[in-house]
Amino acid sequence: MLEIELRALTRARRLARLTSRRPWICSPCRNTLARRPQWRAMGTAPVVGDKKPFYVTTPIFYVNAAPHVGHMYTMVLADVLKRWQVLLGNRDAKLLTGTDEHGLKIQQAAAALGMKPQDLCNENCQTFRNLASAANVDHDHFIRTTDSEHKDAVRYFWDMLNHRGYIYTSKHEGWYSVSDEAFYPISAVQPIVEPQTGRKLVASIETGKEVQWTSEENYHFRLSAFKDRLLEFYRNNPDFITPRNYMTGIMRSVSTKLEDLSISRPTSRLKWGIPVPYDNSQVIYVWLDALVNYLTYAGYPFPPNAKSIWPADVHVVGKDILRFHSIYWPAFLMALDLPLPRRIMAHAHWKMNHEKMSKSTNNVVNPHFAIDRHGLDTMRFFLIIDGPQTTDSNYDNAFIVERYKKDLQGILGNLTSRLMRSKRWNVRESITIAVEGRLPETISENLRHKEFLESMPDRVKAEMEQLDPRRALNSVMEIIKETNRFFHNMSPWALTHHVDLSRPSELDWILYNTAESLRIGGILLQPFMPQKAALLLNMLGVSEEVEKRSFSAARYGADADYGVPSLDLKRGKFNGTLFPPLLCED
Ligand code: MSP
Q1: Which CDD domains match (predicted)?
Q2: Residues 309 and 353 in one domain
Q3: Rounded distance, CA 420 to CA 165, Å?
Q4: 318 and 346 in contact (C-beta within 8 Å)?
Q5: Which one of 18, 255, 424, 460 is at 20 to 30 Å from 138 when CA atoms are compared?
Q6: Are residues 405 and 520 in the same domain?
Q7: Are residues 152 and 301 in the same domain?
Q8: Considering the entire predicted model, what is its pTM?
C-alpha cells in the first residue's frame, strides 16, 4: 500500500515538473493528468512474451453504407488468425472488430438521409455486427468510436501528445478527400474527367477519389520528427508488414515525403467528432480517433496489468489503409513511448468487373446473399484461398461454384464419404489394428504417405506464423488432395476381394492412412471452415473434447479412439454428405 502511494507521489511530482515546464497545459488538465496512471514506456510493458493473450484486430468499418464482401474478407482473415491461436492452445486469444463512426463522411451520409449522425450510426453499426455473426467471426468485443470509454481514451491520447509537445496549431491548406478521410499533398492529386458524368474534378492519384481544396486553421502532429525512428524501426523489423513487398512503398514514402499531419478539423466544417480537449472549435481528425480504438479495448489509458493484451499481435488491414497503420499509428505510439503493434497484415482488394468493390462505386456484393447462396464455410474457404494478398482478385460466382465442385465436394466430401460410408470395410477396426501396433510390414507408398502426413502440420503452422493463411489453407488442401490420389492409386476396394479380412493387412494400412489424413486435415481446417470441419470430425467420430481437436492432436497416431461416426451417416440433416450437390450453379 505504502509502495503504491509512494509511486503515486513520485508520479505526481514528475508530472508537476513536466507541466510546469509546459505552460500550455491548462490547469484542469494538469489535475486530471496527475490523477491518471501512466502506461509504461515503450519496450518496458510489464506483460510481454508468448503468454500475453494473442490480440488481433480488424479495421473498424465506416458506417455510412452497408457492409460488402470486401469487409467480410478482412473480418474472416482476422478470425482465421484468432482461431489458429485457439487451435494451438498455448495462450488466450482476443479478436476486436467494430465501427468507425465519426467524420465528414458519416456527417454527410446522415445529412443526406435527413438523420442525426448518432441515429445513423446506431442503425448501421448493427449491420456490421450482423455480418460478424453471419460470418461466424469469433470476436471478443465490438467497439464503436462513439462509445464513451473510447472517447475518453482518445481525449487522453490527445492530451498526452499535446503535453509532450507534439501538437501545434497552424494554417493548413491542402486537398481533402471526404471518401478517404485524408489530406493529400499537391503531388498526390490530379485533374480527371469523371467517366459517368463528364464532370471535371480533382482526384487522389492513389485512390481515384474526389478531393476538395481546403484552407483552415487546425492542429498538427509533428509527424516529420519521426522519420528517422520510423525508418530505423522498419529496418530492424523487416516482418512488421506482411506480405513483405508492401514495406518497400511505405519506406519510400517515409523517406521521401513525411510531412506533419493535420489532426483536427474546425467545427465550422465538421461537427460530428470528438471535440479537441479544451478547444470546442475543433474536432479530432477521424483517423487519430479511429486508430486509438485498438488501445481502448486494451484498457488504455489505464496501466497494463497481468491480463494486458497490448501490444496488438496483428492488425489486419486493406492496402488502402496501410499508410495510416504503418506510418501514422507507429509514430503516434512512439510519441507516447507506447509499445508498437507487432505486425501488420495487409491485403489487396476484391474487384468486381475489374474495379475495386466499393460502396461508392456501387459494385458491391452483399455478403449475406453470398452466404445464403453458397453456404458460409464455402464462402470462407473461397475468400481465403482465392483472396487478394499482393494483387487484387476478381470476385465471380462461377469461381466459387468451381471451387465447391472441384475441391470441396469433388475431393474432400467425396473422399470422406468413400472412406466412412463403405460397407466393404470397417474403419474403426483398421484404426484399432494400427494403434495396437499390429499393422504388418508394408510397401513404400504407405510409408511415404505416413511421412508426408507427419511433415504437414508443422508446415501449415509455419505458414500461419508467416501470416499466410492462403498458403496454409492450400497446404491443408494438399493433405486432402494427396490423400485422394493415394486412395485412388491404392484402390482399397479392389483389395477387399483378395485379402483375408480377419487378419491385419495392407488394407488396414490404406484405411488408417486415409483416416489419419482426414482427421489431421479436419483438425487443421477448423480455423478456416469451423462448421464443416466440425462435421468432418464428427463423421470420423473424433471426440469433441478440446484436446482431441487441437493442434497437438494433429499428429500421426495421436488419437486412438476415433473411427465410429458420431452422427448417422445415412439419415439426418446432412444425409451423410459433407458438401451436398448444388441446387443452383450459375
Ligand atoms: N474506417 C476505416 C478504417 C479505420 S481502422 C482504424 C476504413 N473503413 S472502411 O469501411 O472503408 O474499410 C474497412 C476495411 O475494408 C479496410 O481494410 C478496407 O481495405 C477493406 N475493404 C474495403 N473494400 C474492400 C475490397 N473491395 N476488398 C477488400 N477489402 C476491402 O477504411
Answers
A1: Anticodon_Ia_Met, MetRS_core
A2: yes
A3: 68
A4: yes
A5: 460
A6: yes
A7: yes
A8: 0.89
pLDDT tens-digit series, residues 514-540: 999 999 999 999 999 999 999 999 999
Q: What angle is formed at CA 78 by the lines to CA 366 and CA 523, rounded to 5 degrees?
A: 105
Cα–Cα distance for residue pair 369/366, rounded to 1 Å: 6
Q: Are residues 332 and 409 in the same domain?
A: no
Question: How far is Cα 62 from Cα 70, in angstroms, rounded to an integer?
Answer: 13
Q: Are residues 17 and 89 in the same domain?
A: yes
Most informative mutation of 58, 69, 71 for ligand 1 (most atoms within 8 A of CB): 71
Distance CA 521, CA 106 (A): 45
Alpha-carbon span 253 to 185, nearest angstrom: 12
Backbone angles phi, psi at 176, to 5 degrees: -115, 130
581 domain-assigned: no
Strand partners, 314: 56, 343
Greater confidence (10 vs 518) lies with 518
Alpha-carbon distances of 73 from 55, 78, 385, 464, rounded to whole Å: 18, 9, 11, 17
| Residue 566 belongs to a domain | no
Residue 100, helix vs strand vs coil = strand
The rounded distance, in Å, linking the Cα atoms of 467 and 435 is: 35
Confidence tier at 583 by pLDDT (50, 70, 90): low
Tell whether ligand 1 has an atom less than 6 A from the beta carbon of residue 74. yes
Do 367 and 219 share a structural domain?
no
**Is position 383 within any domain?**
no
Number of domains the chain is built from: 3
Atom of ligand 1 nearest to the CA of 392: 27
Q: Indicate if 367 and 401 belong to the same structural domain.
A: no
Domain that holds residue 421: 396-553
Q: Does ligand 1 come within 6 angstroms of the Cβ of 393?
A: no
- For residue 129, what are the CA distances in angstroms to 77, 332, 384? 16, 29, 21
267 inside domain: no
Look at the block and give the residue holding cell 467425396: 414
pLDDT band per the 50, 70, 90 thresholds, residue 542: very high
Residue 103: CB within 6 Å of ligand 1? no
Cβ neighbour number for residue 40 with a 10 Å cutoff: 14
Q: Report whether residue 562 contacts ligand 1, using a CB cutoff of 6 Å.
A: no
Residue range 496-517, pLDDT digits in tens: 887 777 788 999 999 999 999 9
Atom of ligand 1 at shortest range from CA of 319: 19
